[in-house]
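re: that chain from earlier
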Amino acid sequence: MKTISIILAIILIHSYSFPQEDIKGSKDHPLFNRMPGYRITNYKEREFDVYKEFMNEKGKKMSVEGKYYYYNYGHIKGAEQPSGPQVLRNYMNAVKKAGGEVVFEEGCCNVYLKVKSNKQVIWVRVKSYTDAGSYQVWIIEEAEMEQDIVADPKAMGDDIERTGRVAVYGIYFDTDSYTIKPESDPTLKAIAELLKTKSNLNLYVVGHTDMTGDFDHNMKLSENRAKAVVDALVKDYGISAKRLIAKGDGPLAPVSTNKTDGGRQLNRRVELVER
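^ sequence. v structure.
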């Protein structure tokens, strides 16, 4: 994060020619300094929030969650005023230089960006206007879960033998995505070992989400994630497709509260259910 902050600070040009007059308690995000000639006129910072107005690469709304920052930058009278596109291009170029990406560009006035740093994904939306009398920035720091516990085939088998099901937390997806992340490989391997050891075991692979976002979307997302797990087990680990059926329960079977970050993390899971 420190290296990226330095790079971005170089690209977004500093200016000390005009008084900032920021509102009390506000401060620039460590990742970005502001455009020259602007002051912070509105500022919000929350340890955790859900931002539902982000756009994915197809221009469809998606939710991102994590530590939340909101900035409204107002132009200081007398300072040189850039155009709206110039504001957006500064942020886009800064993120690209830092190894990030432009997720989606919406017309003249909105851009959605993503930067990865260590174990964090940083989501950024910048909204400007034609004359850039002001511009807004939303930043969400999404902390990725560390895989501290490796799935154990025997323990999973014991749980299924005892209760008919086991919750699996070592399969990872980006927010609003059903593409399995590479760090999921140890858990997928453990599931495959379980199935090879217990050759008569057939499973429902059930995807679960938290309550964040649209219900119908979550139902579809959970099913697609379950299908992705089944596809990986079949294609990459040689498990017979006849032994696995993918289903999605969305947010319908929580194991914890959806009011806290920890509870939502527990609710986002894949379950293996004996059939």
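Residues 215-237 form the longest helix (23 residues).
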